[in-house]
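Input for the complex:
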Amino acid sequence: MEFIDEDLLRYSEDHTSQESELLHKINRQTHLSVMKPRMLSGHLQGRLLSLYSKMIQPKQILEIGTYTGYSALCMAEGLQPGGTLHTVDINEELEERVRGYFDESGYGEQMKLYIGNALEIVPTIEAAFDLVFIDADKINYTRYYEMVIDKVRPGGYIIADNVLWSGKVLEKYRKKLDEDTRAVMDFNRHVHEDERVENILLPVRDGLMIARKK
Ligand SMILES: C[S@@+](CC[C@H](N)C(=O)[O-])C[C@H]1O[C@@H](n2cnc3c(N)ncnc32)[C@H](O)[C@@H]1O
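Predicted:
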């Protein structure tokens, strides 16, 4: 389900800074040769992540769910010199492609790609994060949030993607209450009721939950 009129979306993209040539290439190649290309953040959300990252000026970023590296490279644009972006994905088939894109980007030295289950890898990463982007399996969203919240510095941010879950969080757009939808709804309630953060659910694309640790 598209939340915004297609023409308005195109108009918004036409009045948004262009993605870099490399990001454009990743976007195109993902659509041509990788399964489920809709998972990629895309032009508009990518520019938003880049802008947020430039505003936050993070030294340490964590991403859960690399896919083809598009969102990681958008957020890397705001990294401080000497900063690091840690990104985790369980799909080893993407590794070579992603490493290639990272090397080509000019941020290669600052990108740390981990291949494996985020539930096992994230607890092993020793860092105080300024920005965390949760964008992997929905069923574990609350677990990921709880796993990282103590590793986020006060004033740091957690952003989670797909929190409107194609509208299925609303009964009128839902055929049945499947476990992913239930997990997204539980996550949204969990963050909203969490006294440790202030939050906004931003209806951009498939919904971004943005939480700032107090
Ligand atoms: C929506 S895609 C990420 C899209 C990417 N962040 C972007 O915007 O371009 C979700 C990714 O999460 C990964 N994933 C799913 N379960 C995971 C897990 N338990 N640990 C790590 N990665 C996982 C999938 O392999 C997939 O590549």
